[in-house]
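>> received
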Amino acid sequence: MSKFYITTSIAYVNGAPHVGHALEFVQADTIARYRRQAGDDVFLLSGTDEHGAKIVRAAEAAGMTPRELVDINAEKFRALKDALNLSWDDFIRTSDEARHWPNVRALWNKLVASGDIYKKTYQGLYCVGHEAFITEKDLENGTCRDHDAAPEIIEEENYFFRLSKYAEEVKKKIESSEIAIIPQGRAKEIVNFISQGMEDISFSRPRKDLAWGIPVPHDDTQTIYVWCDALVNYLYPEGKWPADLHCIGKDILRFHALYWPAMLMSVKMPLPKALFVHGHITADGQKMSKSLGNVIDPFSLAQKYGADAVRYYLLREIPPTDDGDFSMAKFAERYEADLANGLGNFAARVTALASRGGITAAAEPEKTVTEAIIKAKETVRAKMGEYRLHEAVHAVWDLITFANQYLNDAKPWDKAVAETDKARAIGNGLVLLDAVADLLTPFLPNATEKIKAGNAGMLFPRI
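>> returned
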């Protein structure tokens, strides 16, 4: 049994969850479930990032205190566990003074002991969206290219971390794949970024400007900066570090692939083994935004169609490491064609026929059936090893398509077919259904649980 420690990034709670958050949670959950099924000792950590200037501004706009806002929104993110049938083992909140703050203070003190924290006055371009100082090369026509907003010019006295001391070493670790970054294009992106030359980075804000956060140890005039705070959540589960896989979005690659390893090098801790980087989701080809009114709510989707339907669309339709699009028309089409008519129809037909005839799975399946199952298993294993989740799901659907066609050809419901041929066809159908359920367990856990319990009559009702 191998240890496999996997994390999502921790979601920023200045707003409610949307389908982009659901994508990352579902991807990480699927990988975790797959590894558990393979017999690994898996620990999946998720949580919420609750400090920083964006939280303060969102709370002020809502007429709340920061604590009131984060308590409300953190519970919404926690509720995704049941809504999407997620299997995380723990959920960490960065506002948790008992569980999270001691680790942050301990790491800060180690960074100080390493000689890599120092204080200076700094003037720079501050992007509220990033919760970070940025440089001219991060701008496009005067605005941050990620957040489409002009940065603020801020001058203040902060503590800094000696990122420049570790940047080249981090680059070498990425180039050698000691820190593996998936897809490879993201590894090249961060290597190119480091090659432009790195400056040291601000690791605190004056407490008079940002009181919502963790005070710097031994200097309560400063608040620990969000990245030295948030990233430390991964160290919380005792005995689990280093992470085998961080699942993150492309917009926070720099912080996970550069800042985080540099911090760990400073305190002589092991580095994360791999980063799996997903893209962003648009809605009908447009960027999701509250102003456009096109933010997709995962709760309403799951309530109407079921958790497995949402999981299926995100895993099948969205390329795992590229940008993808969410369309209600495409969602409904996938639901009807693939889930109701594909998997649902096959499972219902086989179980109904078997129940009426008192037939059990074939002890010796036909060669074509066995070959189709072996091919599907091998493809899923290969694709999951490469984190090509959409292609792994596709391979299972190829098996479902084969199974439906097998039944159509055998026609075990036809009175003209001999009883022995009917029994053989239904027995083979049950073997195929068992294989499909086994392969789909990490992807569609609700449906597979029903199939295995013999309750496959109405997996995906037509809406």
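>> DSSP finds 15 helices and 19 strands in the chain.
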